[in-house]
Amino acid sequence: MDYVKVAAVADVAAGRIVPVEAGGLKLLLTQVDGTFYAAQRKCPHLGFNLCRGAIEGRAIVCPLHKARFDLATGAIERDPRLLFIGMKARTDLATYPVRVEGGEVFVGLPDQDGRKP
Question: Which intervals hold domain Rieske (predicted)?
Fold first, then answer.
């Protein structure tokens, strides 16, 4: 498993969503109660940019359809909804392990065969 530096701790204030790139992957980085989380930047439902979303507790909410995903596991906590139309989310959010060392934030990337760390 390779860890790639993506930000300085000081660049990620609590509750802020920061777009980062690591190994060609477009990710988001956030910090909740001192714990850092990294996840895919696009919503797995319609591909909307989650950096424009909101942090609620330890979850991120898509600004387009209000689907809610746990930042630690990527699990769907609330299905998408557009206007009055309810939908069923079929895919969890991809999440990545995060390590903090010496004031820098590192994200663990999938192995070359595509397996997540």
Answer: 4-107
